[in-house]
Amino acid sequence: MVGLIDCDNFFCSCERVFRPDLARTPLVVLSNNDGCVVARSKEVKAMGVPEGMPFHELKERFPDAGIVAFSSNYTLYGDMSSRIVSILREEVPEVIQYSIDEAFLDLSGMESAGLHKWGEELCKKILKYTGMPVSLGIAPTNTLAKMASKCAKKYPAYNKCCVMATDEQREKALRLFPVGDVWGIGRRISRSLEYIGVNTAYDFASLSKDYVRRKYHVTGERTWKELHGEPCIAIDGLDGVTKKTIVTSRSFPDMIKDLADLRSHVANYAARCAVKLRRQNSVCSMVTAFIQSNHFREDLAQYDCSGSYSFLTPTNTTGEIVATATSILEGIFRKGIYYKRAGIMVSGISSAEAFQPDLFEYDPERSRKLKDLSAALDRINGRMGADTVVLGAQQYRDKGEDGKSVKFVNAIRRAMKSPDYTTSLGAFTV
Q: Rounded to an integer, what distance in angstroms lies between the CA atom of residue 98 and that of residue 239?
């Protein structure tokens, strides 16, 4: 059996833990630069507010709804997620964190008869220890477990834990579950299925396996098998998934015209790509940088451009990737343009344990020093906090109240950000 823990309205719930006065208040969390809605409490969802609605439009359409908005606080959200995972690791032999608010649990060896009671107690424990409401789905496969967690969240009668241990329970859930909400069935496949009259997960599971494989290939067949209770994806296969491309891109709080300011943003995006590469023990062979003007300002000159560079020897060091990204930027930058967005993509990703260095370009001693420097940055920033130590190219010219250069995490607009309650002693005032 497999379990899936899913936090209810995760971002909003994190904010409410330290603001119990907002327990029943409509609440939203905004994207970077306070641009649009990325998380909604159930009260806001009931109002018909869609995910992705621009914040200015939300204020115009719902001026008297009493909606409280928070800027995104990923430091708080990440720490709350870690606390929940630490509780889970005490309860089960293996936890695979699928996302910031979801984790798969390996329940091998546990008696099916007592799983529902155990699941209820686990959800109560997490709520008591962290203040975070969660839902738990338990089933023979990952796809069914994800489906069960949604049922546990939607139907109060399950008491936060839904178990699909029998064929009867599985069939009942499949009949009630929309096919478009099944994990592994995307929007395009969902439209195709609805066109032929397949509206529920049960309808999809009732199709012949040969038809599903012929029409929707191996991935569709895998989903079909999982809905029939046949595991196709090992639970440990979800951990440490290697991304084939990594992109870091953001819009700026204000338009940027100066190359030096633009360079700082691009350098920070590149540094974060390098960190993500090292976390998955990978190297990249290509870096791409792109910059864009503000398409909504038709009164201004428009300009989009990108450039790429291929490494002879793949790398994941911060110094090399940042230097390459800023060099590309200088080549594509055009004066007189007001820029609103930039980004970095690293591709050609392979394992850091097995890659082919260039015979003539590769310098073992230089490579070792760059790796040691990147490892030192990871250790210091991991222990002391993000951006404690950065490269010179990553520093911003603007200064904070302490007279020091503004950090990347504070270089975006977050006017309604909550304090870092769990990681900063200065978050609470007496």
A: 7
